[in-house]
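This section describes the prediction task in plain terms. A model, or a person checking by hand, is given the sequence of a single protein chain and must write out its three-dimensional structure as a string of tokens. No templates, partner chains or ligands are provided. The sample shown here is typical of the held-out split.
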Amino acid sequence: MTQFLLENILLLAIILVCICVLAAPYVMKGRFGAQVDNTAATQLINHKGAQIVDLRDPKDFKKEALANSINIPADRIQYEFERLKKDKPVLLVDNNGRHSRLASTLLRGLGFKETYILQGGLDAWRRAGLPFTR
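The expected answer:
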């Protein structure tokens, strides 16, 4: 057995790397919450009454926003999370999804069971030609 391991160390390293790469999305999902594409986000909003939290700067929010979204800048979420209901899903949006991951981790730690991140952020929403309210 030891001889086999020594002779195939490169093969075993490649297998280990492949396992890590394949497992990464599942680990990240548990840590940050689920990422949803535009279609799934629309279903969350229309069928589950998801609360849409726009994490961008207020001036960007005033220019364009998703319908019925509320603006809580990413650097204020820890102070204003009480504006959200813990028993309803929360859809976190920003320009590209980076701030959403941190906010999702925070909200999950505060007891929010269903937090979702808009995959690709509002940039992906915009590229798909989906509507904004402003």
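For orientation: The radius of gyration is 19 Å.
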